[in-house]
Amino acid sequence: MIFRQLFESVSSTYTYLLASRVGGEALIIDPVFEKVERYIQLLEDLDLKLVKAVDTHTHADHVTGLGALRDLTRCVTVMGERSKVDVVSMRVREGDKVKIESISLDVIETPGHTDDSYSFRLPDRVFTGDTLLIRGTGRTDFQNGDPYASYDSIFNKLLKLPEDTLVYPAHDYKGDTVSTIGEERANNPRLQISSPEEYIDIMNNLNLPNPKQMDVAVPANLKIGYKDADPVIQEWTLNIDAAMNRRKQGDVIFVDLREDYERNRDGVIADSVHAPYGRLAEFIKPGGLLSTMAGQTGKTIVLYCAFGERSALALKAMHDAGLPAVLHVGGGLKAWRNEGGEVVSV
Length: 346
Ligand SMILES: [Fe+2]
Prior knowledge:
Blueprint: E1 2-8, E2 13-19, E3 25-29, H1 36-45, E4 49-54, H2 66-73, E5 76-80, E6 90-92, E7 97-100, E8 103-109, E9 118-122, E10 125-129, E11 132-133, E12 136-137, H3 147-156, E13 166-169, E14 179-180, H4 181-187, H5 196-204, H6 214-222, H7 231-235, E15 237-238, H8 240-249, E16 252-256, H9 260-266, E17 273-274, H10 280-284, H11 289-296, E18 300-304, H12 309-320, E19 326-329, H13 332-338
Parallel strand pairs: 3-4, 4-5, 5-6, 10-13, 15-19, 16-17, 16-18, 18-19
Antiparallel strand pairs: 1-2, 2-3, 7-8, 8-9, 9-10, 11-12, 13-14
Helix pairs in contact: 3-5
Bound molecules: fe (ii) ion (FE2).
Fe (ii) ion is lined by residues 57, 59-60, 113, 130, 138.
């Protein structure tokens, strides 16, 4: 596996780049906006294609690189379903898996530092965001933080992982880079307690100043959705009413860009064709599934995904590739369901 731990010194943030092979797909965890150029350079150096960018939670101390990376690489943005960010491509919950090629991260819901904190686990390591730090734990005094939830996430989830599991946090202010679950259980001063109340007491009395960039970072990080100011996207976006009408008219083919687990979890629009976004380039090449459909069926393709971000990016890519008879469903399946649109099991 290719694994890089990258550091941003203003906010002492660690960002992680994962890939299974040179020339393959990559995933990035907790990218920082100011470092995006550096990540792009590294991806090029290692001949990697970024396919997913994940934030462990809504950060208060730095502006996320998720939006910029998506705009530059058309990667899928991923956060937990409890996140209040306006749009990400994919929202995950406990038990889901975030996959690229041969790498699969288990999603563990670990609220407490914020109410939208998640950890992501490989068999030998866990990316703990700010839930569990090296010899510390993430503060719980803003962004709906909750010391009891933090206790529960740490003691009942993270510390239940095997002792030798490597711990990679989102921050370190002392220069430590990695720890293990066993090492933290034995040495993390906040975890040497005999009751949840004792932990809550510690957390409620930290009296920390707010992060310097908080007033800028939080609002910025809540608005990272794809800006559909692009005229092509504006022109070819269907609102839900229009999408339902076109479906009744029968002159369209709905194409679902989501992954299998999302389809199994949330259902599909009946009779839609599955063309997962990660393989879009292959589908829109001459002879590919979508270019063939666009050319031969005489019907208009209507792309949809979970929230309308992947479908907007795919729409743009298809128009750029000279496949103009393509629309997308603004707001995706979430908006479709909200408006009473029918969804069936796969
Ligand atoms: Fe944080």
